[in-house]
Automatic annotation (TrEMBL):
SUPFAM superfamilies: Bet v1-like (SSF55961). Residues 54-88 are annotated as: Disordered. Residues 55-83 have a biased composition (Polar residues). InterPro entries: START-like_dom_sf, START_lipid-bd_dom, START_lipid_transfer. The chain crosses the membrane at residues 15-35. This is Bet v1-like protein. The keyword Plastid does not apply. One of its GO terms (cellular component) is cytoplasm. Keywords: Membrane, Transmembrane, Transmembrane helix. Residues 165-354 form the START domain. Pfam families: START.
Length: 374
C-alpha cells in the first residue's frame, strides 16, 4: 500500500513538472514573439513586415510614427491628381511599436530604399528635400561602416585574435601595380587587403568604375547577373544591388549577394563602402545567399609611378566574405583567381576612363557615370 502511494505521488510530481516546463516554454515563446513583432501576429501566420501600403492610404494606419505621417502629408500636398505613387517616388512601410532595435532598423532601412531619388525621377523640390532628409538617417551603409574601414586600414586597429597579414600576391604590368595580403580572423574565416595602382586614372574615376555593374559583367567573369533593387541619393551613389556569381569550379555552386553601397568623399579621397544587407523580397532559389560580406576601398589620386609624368589612382581594398564552403577551399579560390581578375580589370578600366572623359573631366564628380555603358 505504501509503495503504491509513493508511486502515485511520484507520477503526479512528474506530470506537474512536465506541465510546468511546457507552460514555461509557451510563455517564453509568446513573450519573445511579442517583443520582436509588437504583438502575437506571428503566432498565427501574419507577417507584419509584409503590410506595406502607399502614402495615399496612410490614414488607415493608427500606429505609424509622427515622422511618417508628416512626410506623407507633405508628399500628398505636393502631388497632383495625375501623379502616380511611383512618380512621387516614395513608399513607406507600416511600423509597429515594441520592435526590437534590429527589427526597427530593418524596417526603417527598407522605407529608405523605397524612397527613390533617381536622376530621372520628376519630383518637386520640397519632395526631394524631404526624401533626402528622411533617407539619409536610415540608409544601410552609414558613417559607422566608413569608420570600420578607416580603423582597420588607416589606423591599423587591433583585431583581437586575428592573425598577421601574409602577402599572397605581388605583380605588375605596364599599366597596373598590385599586391595583396590576407589574415585569419578569430572565427577562422579570412580577411583580404590589397593595393592597386592604376595608370592615368583619378580617384573618382576608379570609384565610378567599381560601381558600374553593367560594365562589370563584361570584365568580371564570375558575375552572371546584376540588378538594382533600390536607389537613394545619386551624389552618394546609394544603391542596393543584387549579384549572382557563378564559379568555374564544380564544387562551388552559384552565390547570391544583396549589397548596400554608398560613397563618401573626404577631401580628395573617395571611399566606396559595400556590404551585405537584408532586403525584403530579394531571394534566389538557385543560388546560395552570402549574408556576411563587405568590400570597402579608398581611392586616392597620386603621381604616376610609371614614369610618364601623369597621374595614377591608388586603391586600397579591404574585402571579406563567408562563402559557406570550407575555408581552405575559399582561400584557394580567391588566390587562384586574384591576378587574372586584376588583369581583366585593367583594360576595362582604361576604356571606361576614355568614355567617361567625353562627359566629364578626370576630377569631376559625375554620378551619372555609374550607369554609363562601355
Amino acid at each position: 500500500m505504501l509503495q503504491s502511494y509513493f508511486v502515485s505521488v511520484c507520477q503526479h510530481l512528474s506530470w506537474w513538472l512536465l506541465s510546468s516546463l511546457l507552460v514555461w516554454e509557451i510563455c517564453a515563446f509568446c513573450t519573445a514573439s511579442f517583443l520582436h513583432n509588437g504583438d502575437l501576429r506571428s503566432l498565427f501566420g501574419f507577417d507584419s513586415d509584409k503590410r506595406d501600403f502607399d502614402v495615399q492610404n496612410s490614414s488607415d494606419s493608427g500606429s505609424a510614427t509622427t515622422e511618417s505621417r508628416s512626410l506623407d502629408e507633405s508628399l500628398n500636398s505636393n502631388r497632383s491628381s495625375s501623379t502616380t505613387h511611383e512618380d512621387a517616388g516614395c513608399r513607406r512601410r507600416n511600423t509597429y511599436r515594441f520592435l526590437s532595435s534590429e527589427k526597427c532598423h530593418s524596417l526603417l532601412s527598407y522605407r529608405k530604399f523605397r524612397c527613390r531619388t533617381t536622376l530621372n525621377s520628376p519630383r518637386s523640390e520640397q519632395q526631394a528635400d524631404l526624401c533626402s532628409a528622411w533617407t539619409l538617417s536610415t540608409w544601410y551603409v552609414t558613417e559607422e561602416d566608413l569608420s570600420f574601414f578607416q580603423g582597420r586600414v588607416e589606423s591599423d586597429a587591433e583585431v583581437p585574435g586575428a592573425g598577421r597579414w601574409e602577402e599572397i600576391c605581388r605583380n605588375s604590368t605596364t599599366n597596373i601595380k598590385y599586391h595583396a595580403s590576407r589574415r585569419s580572423l578569430p572565427d577562422g574565416t579570412t580577411e583580404y587587403m590589397s593595393t592597386t595602382i592604376t595608370r592615368d586614372a583619378s580617384a573618382v574615376e576608379m570609384l565610378d568604375f567599381f560601381l558600374n555593374d553593367a560594365l562589370r559583367q563584361g570584365w568580371d567573369g564570375l558575375i552572371s547577373h546584376t540588378e538594382v533593387l533600390a536607389e537613394g541619393d545619386p551624389s552618394s551613389r546609394e544603391q542596393v544591388v543584387r549579384w549572382i556569381r557563378t564559379f568555374p569550379f564544380s564544387f562551388i555552386s552559384s552565390r547570391e549577394y544583396v549589397l548596400g553601397r554608398r560613397a563618401f568623399r573626404r577631401g580628395d579621397d573617395w571611399y566606396g563602402i559595400m556590404r551585405s544587407v537584408d532586403f525584403p523580397g530579394a531571394a534566389s532559389e538557385s543560388a546560395v545567399r552570402v549574408d556576411r560580406m563587405y568590400s570597402m576601398w579608398r581611392s586616392r589620386t597620386v603621381p604616376s609611378p610609371f614614369g610618364d609624368g601623369g597621374i595614377a589612382c591608388e586603391t586600397v581594398l579591404l574585402h571579406y566574405e563567408d562563402m559557406k564552403v570550407p575555408e581552405q577551399i575559399a582561400r584557394f579560390t580567391v588566390r587562384a583567381g586574384m591576378w587574372n581578375f586584376v588583369k581583366r580589370m585593367a583594360p576595362a578600366m582604361q576604356r571606361f576612363v576614355k568614355q567617361r572623359r567625353k562627359l566629364a573631366g578626370p576630377f569631376d564628380d559625375e554620378p551619372v557615370a555609374v550607369c554609363m555603358d562601355d
